[in-house]
């Protein structure tokens, strides 16, 4: 009987390991923490040697908070950015933080707020998942880090992207 239990425990252990690998490999459609929830994070694919890309998602704060920082092991520089039209010219700038009003979804999307990945260390291909850390600061100064994985999509597959906003993930300098 001991042999049967021992064999069964190896099967359970192997199945658990396989399940853990599958969970790591799968993109996360939503992530929830104490301060905020992130829904549908995705990143633009790149062409070989491209040095920048952008990440989009929807963030909902459970209490008034701010997104103050983002980082990823795939990029040397990660910044929170805003694109806007000023006098018929598309402008893009880094912002120090993004307000997350309590209970109100904030969209990071092409042509608006987004997270910019610069000095890329990898070529991002369709279907890749890119790890990101988001730092949320509550009004009382407490901080929480959300670990997310963004699914890579091609610019053609990204809905709502057009013109300068679609090209934003291309060549980029500050």
Question: Can you walk through the features of this model?
Answer:
By secondary structure, the chain is an alpha+beta fold. It has one domain: Immunoglobulin-like. The chain is built from two helices and eleven strands, in the order αβββββββββββα. Strands 1, 2, 3, 4, 5, 6, 7, 8, 9, 10 and 11 form an eleven-stranded mixed sheet that branches. A hairpin with a 3-residue loop joins β1 and β2. The termini are far apart.
**Would you give the CATH topology?**
Immunoglobulin-like
CATH superfamily: PCu(A)C copper chaperone
Rg from Cα: 19 Å
Mean pLDDT: 81
* CATH top level class name: Mainly Beta
- Please indicate the count of domains: 1
Q: Give the overall shape.
A: globular
Secondary structure tally: strands = 11
End-to-end Cα distance, whole Å, is 68 Å
Structural class: alpha+beta
Question: Spans with pLDDT under 50 lasting ≥5 residues?
Answer: 1-28, 160-174
Number of helices: 2
N-to-C order of helices and strands? HEEEEEEEEEEEH
- How would a crystallographer describe the biggest sheet? 11 strands, mixed
Estimate the helix proportion, in percent: 10-25%
Oligomer: single chain
Strand content: over 45%
- CATH architecture grouping: Sandwich
Ordered list of secondary-structure elements with their pairings:
Elements: H1 2-25, E1 30-32, E2 36-44, E3 52-61, E4 65-71, E5 75-86, E6 89-94, E7 98-100, E8 105-108, E9 113-120, E10 129-138, E11 143-153, H2 163-167
Parallel strand pairs: 2-11
Antiparallel strand pairs: 1-2, 2-3, 3-8, 3-9, 4-7, 4-10, 5-6, 5-9, 10-11
């Amino acid at each position: 009987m001991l042999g049967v239990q021992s064999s069964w425990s190896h099967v359970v252990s192997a199945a658990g390991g396989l399940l853990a690998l599958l969970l790591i490999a799968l993109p996360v459609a939503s992530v929830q923490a104490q301060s905020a929830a992130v829904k549908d994070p995705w990143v633009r694919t790149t062409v070989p040697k491209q040095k920048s890309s952008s990440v989009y998602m929807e963030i909902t704060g459970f209490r008034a908070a701010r997104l103050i920082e983002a980082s990823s092991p795939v990029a040397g520089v990660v910044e929170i950015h805003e694109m806007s039209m000023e006098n018929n010219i598309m402008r893009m700038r880094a912002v120090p933080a993004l307000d997350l009003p309590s209970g109100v979804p904030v969209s990071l999307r092409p042509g608006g707020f987004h997270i910019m990945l610069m000095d890329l260390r990898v070529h991002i291909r369709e279907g890749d998942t890119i790890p990101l850390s988001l730092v949320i600061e509550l009004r009382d100064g407490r901080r929480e880090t959300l670990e997310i994985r963004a699914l890579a999509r091609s610019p053609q597959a990204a809905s709502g992207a057009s013109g300068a906003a679609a090209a934003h993930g291309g060549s980029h300098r500050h």
